[in-house]
Amino acid sequence: MRTIKAAAAAALLSLPFLPLPSAAEAATTPPMGWSSRSLGCSVSEQSVRQAADALAPLAPLGYRYVIIDDCWLAAQRAGGALAPDAARFPGGIAALAGYVHGKGLKLGLSLSAGTKACSGGGPGSYKSEAADAAQVRAWGVDYVKYDWCSIPTADFPGKNVQQIAQALYPPMRQALGPDVVFAMNNEDGSTVPWLWGKDAGATTWRTNVYNRPIADSYATMVDLWETNQLRAEYAGRGSWADPDLIQAGRGGMTETEYRTQFTLWAMGAAPLILQAAPAQAPASVVANPKVIAVDQDPLGAHGTLVESDGWYHVLAKPLAGGDRAVALFNESDRAAVVSTRLGGRHRVEDLWSGAVTSTTDELAAQVPAHAALLYRVSESREQAPPVVTFEADPPRFLGDDRPSTLEPGVTGELVTRVTNTGATARLRDVEVTAQAPEGWRVEARTPARTSRLDGGESFTVTWAVTAPAPGTYEVTFRYGDRTATAVVLVAKAPGSGRTYLSDLAWTRATNYFGPVEKDTSNGERAAGDGRPLTIEGVTYAKGLGTHAPADIEFYAGGRCTAVEFQAGIDDEVGAAGSAGFEVWADGGRVAYSGLLTGAMPARKVTAPIEGARFVRLVATNGGDNATSDHADFADATITCK
């Protein structure tokens, strides 16, 4: 993976250096920079200087704020004034601010609206707002992240959480003055900051509805994006909706998923604050000036959904000068065509690939799973090639998110389709080629070349595909400089008779804590850390150990008849824990255990699965918290013909 440090010399030296704006000027676009949150209380003066060194090459793109997120304060005030932790910041904050400013950057600090800081044990700013604001301004601090921790609610009798927040945040904003960015970090949804943050003078306000940082995972990122979209009407120039930090470079998502987060945040005019060390953030994601320009557009509009059916989303955002940004987002686990009508002839620039095309109306593309494509759309009659929709292995129905499945040595079919979507010119000499993994056979069953393709016409090729071994693979198809990829699952159905599911390979599995375990309970951390499966004193040699909610899928190939297991909460959590145990055959639930708790014996579950291609074992949360939900599928078997 490329890093900022490696890419800076090649990609960024040619960019003009922009003069450092005041905080008030910077607030006219969403703040950009880096936060020390991942460092926690290991943050230090040295690590902040290193981050500033690595961030400086990105300053021409707008990354300006180096933000110390907690653990910088001494445990006690010094003569009533805030003081930095002497071990972590021996040189003091003023000297650090000078160093950061010397790099063409700005310094940010976190403070708390309550009696204590959120982490590190330092004092909060409750009843000391004016003095603390004067202190950080004197140090040269340019950005304050004002947290919501250790709030003395007893001091506000008769007031709800929103009213308390509305009493505590404005005094700090007023004391800091307009030249300091004010990031209102009261992410507790009960304070509903989107309703009043702008009136309180907040530069940014968090849109979470739960009080915890963003996890470096695709599912969490999408959840926060969806929540953020619900606040779009309240955001605008100078007061930005903040769905939390950019995760690129931390390692929990793919580069495609990181690019999706960056695209969605740009469409939402969100702050672009890196959480990974700047040197680890991939330049291919965070250093694209045309995507950043969408986020930083002077109009300041928050993009809105213009089409959505739950899996596939189209967002649009008006830009200064009359252009608009359009994002096509495929939330599902399988590539699919996402399209929208633009109304009239347009120039279309793909901001990630740089390709420029034109269309008489429709914009469409096959969007990979978990990906978001971003376009700048302009009204123009520019002579550019037409928009082309190039598909590989299109879904069989709306919402189909399962990869196409082959069995080893059994020939199946894949389809590719080229469509002249833009219809601004005729396509000539359209030829599609295939590239498969080693050992595969891929042959065109229908012609793979056509001499012409008029506007609106499609050219479909059927391919015979044979795979040698189980696994998940990619088959890549090419048309000109375009590629389309089919993700193919190669799976083998169980043999005839009765087989323990723990002796089979699952096709996919999710689990609340740690991995699903075979023949042991769930240990919550690394694979293999479980204990013997035990339910009410009965020990089972075979089975699957999970932590609800959990979901385990097996390929049955339509040749199996029944799944059986003993369902129960493992004895290792005592009487605590509760879960429901389900079996799903393709799209329908075929068995349910009812609610089981840690104080109940195992319950036998038998599920008919005749004809099902895929079978899922699901453990659902019992309705309380998930802390002790160690759900065992003991003696789990599948019977096949």
TrEMBL record:
User: Record's superkingdom?
Assistant: Bacteria
Task: Keywords in alphabetical order, please.
Answer: Disulfide bond, Glycosidase, Hydrolase, Signal
- The Glycosyl hydrolase family 98 putative carbohydrate-binding module domain covers which part of the protein? 495-640
The top EC class is: hydrolase
Q: Record's InterPro entries?
A: A-galactase_NEW3, Aldolase_TIM, Galactose-bd-like_sf, GH, Glyco_hyd_98_carb-bd, Glyco_hydro_27, Glyco_hydro_b, Ig-like_fold
Q: What is its EC number?
A: 3.2.1.22
Q: Which residues form the signal peptide?
A: 1-26
Q: Which reaction does it catalyse?
A: Hydrolysis of terminal, non-reducing alpha-D-galactose residues in alpha-D-galactosides, including galactose oligosaccharides, galactomannans and galactolipids
Identify its protein family: Belongs to the glycosyl hydrolase 27 family.
Name of the protein: Alpha-galactosidase
State the species of origin: Nonomuraea composti
